[in-house]
Amino acid sequence: MKRVPARIAYGIDADAMLAQTRSWSAINTGTANLEGLSRQWDMLADAFSDLPGTLADVRPRPVTAIAPDGSMREIAHGSHMVLRVRPDAARRVLLTGHMDTVFPADHPFQEQRWIDAETLNGPGLADMKGGIAAILHALLAFEQTEDAARLGYDVMINSDEETGSLSSAALIADLARGKHAALTYEPSALPDGTLAHARGGSGNFSVVVTGRSAHAGRNPDEGRNALVAAADLAVRLKALGHAGLSVNPARIEGGAANNVVPDHAVLRFNIRPKSVEAAEKFQRDFSALLHDIETAHEVSVRSHGGITRPPKPVDARAQKLFDLVRDCGAELGQEIGWQPSGGVCDGNNIAACGVPVVDTMGVRGGAIHSPDEFLIVPSLAERAALSALVLTRLASGDLA
After folding, report:
1. d(Cα 103, Cα 124) in Å, to the nearest integer?
2. Which residue, 399, 397, 395, 398, is CA-closest to 148?
3. pLDDT at 11
4. What's the farthest any 2 CA atoms get from each other in the chain?
5. Are 308 and 168 in contact (CB under 8 A)?
6. How far, in Å, CA of 135 to CA of 184, rounded?
7. CA distance 361 to 93
C-alpha cells in the first residue's frame, strides 16, 4: 500500500473549514434569492482566489417555465462561478458544487445551533456549503504536492442545482467535455459516509390543456372541459409507471366559477426513470398519450419541460473511480461504501457526457432539505483529505 503523504493526511485546516462553512451558511441562498446568491458568489470568489488559475463569473442561461395561466415566463437565476487551473494539462478533472439551497429568503430556518459537540444544525451546512469547503481545502492541500503540476482542473459552483441546473446545464456539459474524471460534492448518501452509486433520472413536465368554455347549465355540451382532460391525463400518466419508472402527477391548475365549463388547465408532473431505456420508452408513450387525450376530449395540449437529469448507470470506468475513492479512504482510515440512490444531482448530467463521476464526495450529514439538516463537523477535514488524496492518485495516472 502506498504511503499517505503527511501533508495531505494532516495538513487540512479544520478550524478554517468550519468557520467558512458557518459564514456561508449564514447567507440565505435559496435559488430565487438573487441578492443572497450574489453575496455568496463574492465570498466564494474571495476564498477560491487562494488557488492558482482564473476565476470567471458565468451568467446563467435563459430559463422559461409555464405560468398558471399557460403563458411562458422567464425565471431569473444567479451567476455561476468557474475556476480554471492549468487548462493546458494533458490530464484534467472537474469538481462541482452548488451554492444554492432549498430554503427561500422568508423561510424560518435561517440559524445554526449545536446538537452535540460534533454535530451542527443549520441551513445548507451539509447540502452543500460544507461540500464547497471540502473542494477548496482539498485543492489547497493538493496544490502543495509535487503531483499538482501534472493535473489540471475546473471547479464549477452553480447557483441553480436545487431546481434542476436548468441555467447551468450547458455549462456543465461544456466543462465535462474531455475530462479524465469528475468529483461532485453532494453530501454523503448516509451519515456514515456511504456514497451514492447508480442513480435514476428525473424529468419535470407541464402540460397546458386548452378546451372551450360554455355555460354549465345552458349549453354544457358545447364546452370542452380542460380540467377533466387534465385529470384524465394525470390518471393515464400514473398508469404508465412500472418498476423502472415512477410517475408523480403533482398539481392541476385551472378552472373558474362553478357554472362555467373550464377551457384551461395546467398539469404538472415528475418522472423518475431508472434507466435510459425507461426514459426513452416514456417519451414515446407520452407523445402517444397526448394525442389520445386531444382526440378523446377534443382539446389541444402543449407540453413543456422534459428529462433534465438523465439516469446515471455506473459503467466499468466509473466503477474504477469508485474503487479508487474507496482505496484512498482505506489509506486514511475511512471506510467507504456505496449504494444506489433515487435522488438526482449534477452528477447525472456529468455522467451523461461519458465522464466517470463520484457525486457524493461532500461532507457527512443528513436530514437535508429540512430544518433538521445537520453537518457532522469532523467530516469536513475527513472529506477534504480524501479528495486531496484522490486528486494525487488521479495526477499519478491511477485511473488510466
Report:
1. 8
2. 395
3. 81
4. 85
5. no
6. 9
7. 14
- pLDDT on residue 256: 86
Residue 233 CA from chain centroid, whole number: 29
In the beta sheet, which residues pair with residue 260? 215
SS3 of 176, please?
helix
| pLDDT value of position 9 | 55
Over residues 230-280, the pLDDT tens digits come to 999 999 999 999 999 999 999 999 998 999 999 999 999 999 999 999 999
247 contacts 275 by C-beta, under 8 angstroms:
no
What does the pLDDT read at residue 41? 98
Cell of 67: 405560468
Structure pTM? Answer: 0.94
- Which percentage of the chain shows pLDDT scores above 90? 96
pLDDT given for residue 3 in this prediction: 44
Residues contacting 336, CB < 8 A, separation 6+: 193, 194, 195, 325, 326, 329, 330, 386
Give me the sign of the Cα torsion angle 180, 185, 189, 194. Answer: positive
Q: Which residues of the chain have pLDDT under 70?
A: 1-10, 400
Which DSSP letter does residue 91 get? S
Amino acid (one-letter) located at 25: S
Number of H helices, E strands in the chain: 10, 20
CA distance 374 to 330: 25
DSSP 274-297: SSHHHHHHHHHHHHHHHHHHHHHH
Report d(CA 360, CA 188) in Å as an integer: 5
Distances (CA, A) of 279 to 15, 47, 268, 288: 45, 40, 18, 15
Q: What is the rounded end-to-end Cα distance, in angstroms, of the chain?
A: 18
- Which residues make beta-bridge pairs with 181? 93
- In terms of DSSP bridges, do strands 264-273 and 202-210 run parallel, antiparallel, or are they unpaired? antiparallel
Count CB neighbours of 222 within 10 A.
Answer: 11
Q: Are 54 and 83 within 8 A, CB to CB?
A: yes
What angle, rounded to 10 degrees, do the helices at 130-142 and 14-25 form? 140
